[in-house]
Amino acid sequence: MQDIIIKNAHVYDGLGNPPIHADVAVSHGVITEIGSINASANQVIDAKGLSLMPGIVDLHTHFDAQITWDSTLSPSPALGVTTAVLGNCGFGIAPCPALLREIMLKNLSVVEGMDLNSLLTGVNWEFESFAQYMDQLRRIKPYINTAVFAGHSVIRTAVMGEEGSKNAEPTPKQLSDMCQQVREAMQAGAIGFASSFSPNHSGFGGLPMPSTIAPEEELRALTNVLGEMGRGVFMMATGSRATPDVMESIAEQTKRPAYISTVLTMFNEANPELCKTYYERANQALARGNELYILTSCQPLSFDFTLLEPYVLLSHSAFDAVSAAQLHQLNAIYADPEFRRAFRANLAKPKSGILFLGNWRHIEVGQTSLPQNQSLEGLTIEALAKSKGQDPVDAFFDLALSENLQTHFVGKFFQNKDEGVAPLLKDSASVVTLSDAGAHLGYMCDAGFGLHFLAHWVRETGHFNLSEGIRRLTSDPAQRFRIPNRGKLQVGAPADLLLFDPEKVGMSKPLPRADLPGGATRMIRQPKGVHGVWVNGVMVHDGKNYATLQEGPGTVIDQFDV
After folding, report:
1. pTM score, two decimals?
2. Are residues 407 and 423 in the same domain?
3. How many C-beta atoms lie closer than 10 Å to residue 460's C-beta?
4. What is the pLDDT of residues 70-83, one digit of tens each?
5. Which of the listed residues 487, 518, 535 is the one where a domain comes to its end?
6. Is 440 found in the same domain as 429?
7. How confident is the model at residue 297 (pLDDT cuts 50, 70, 90)?
8. Which of 160-167's residues contact partners 24+ apart within 8 Å by CB, and which partners?
9. I need a labelling partner for 209 at 20 to 30 A (CA). Which of 216, 240, 377, 482 fits?
């Protein structure tokens, strides 16, 4: 007797092989048979010719806080994700001594665009150490499989306190303590170590996130723990300081795979050749036997934002005053000619690696709050300025001020041209991911990157056939991050499954939902063409609604391939 038999499906194994028309049997959370199955089962599902694939593996999420109050890790399961990696860029909440909880959450709220009140009221603190956090995740029993990075900024804060964002040089004792924290996290089941040197990563009150001011010697000391232990992957939001040469040297020194995440690897019309140089360098490193890969987004890097929370602009020094201001002070700052002059100066010479480089064609008017301004929705700021005979900086701030900063803008900064993005996705050094699921909730929701890939890059543009597209979303990321036995639809593998219609698969536009702790609003997306998502043999979403479960079937993954 099988638990489940899914009959009459086009079965994709996740390894890139052509599909077969077959039935799939599942028992005790494991795929037990693939073929023409005549056995009985507790549940028989007729797929009616739909496609069945392994669940999507999302390597880049920020569910570290949300998972403590939301075991579903919404909206990822609805969007086909069955395995998620937390703690990317070195940001998270463990380890965290009790006295540092507030500063940890304040930093997280800014750098990952999260509502601070939701974090302060929602996070369930049953831990201080990384090992205790992993134990809490096991008690939570999440809907999907999870793995967690040991994080540089988290550990720096845990050891140095608020000085972690102020003092670049740790004492020898502090550095030794940080190395020990990485070691303990790895012993407790961390997937590896993550950090950031990105100038976009600002913390609370305008202070930098701790890792971004750390010297390179500190980064090398912490990553050496991976080499010492002979396991784990290294993920880095590199900015311009952690160059491909630096990243390759760390991969060579530690003998561990290293992963670059930066907007500098994304297609940018202002400098279309720059991203290619990163892929060339990664391939050169691979040819030398040093594993250096690039985390590649398959979607335009778009942000919905207001000037009440201008996350995408905070890396410009003119916005330091905004970061440090109270809400009631913002109108005066934005109206100040001196502030606007400073912002223009930033745009004339933008720092490397930041989000907005000054091309006003890449920011659109999103949703307006006044009826008389609705006709402006969809206009670029460049077009708006031209229609009003204004400088774009003035047109931008004047519109927002006229609506008491309630205007929503949409920034489409990188990865916004198919001809430039397709070669990056196909590159042998690329790993398709970068959903940022769980973060920037007020601005965006890219948790459905996998459904977008199947819709746009497979069905609509034909850049990938379905077998290869599925492989890039399943077994490939799992293997690159050394996640064992996931992303494959084979006998003996865990039954992480996605049943879908290739002709309809996709996702909705971002939709607001006021369901965060404290009543804050976030953006989510709903699936299209999805008929079921199973994790370890248990349905977690039927394509319309989450399953009501006493406990989630997800595994907290703490053992990894070498």
Report:
1. 0.89
2. no
3. 11
4. 999 999 999 999 99
5. 487
6. yes
7. very high
8. 160/210, 161/100, 161/103, 162/103, 164/210, 165/107, 165/203, 165/207, 165/208, 165/209, 165/210, 165/213, 166/207, 166/213, 167/213
9. 482
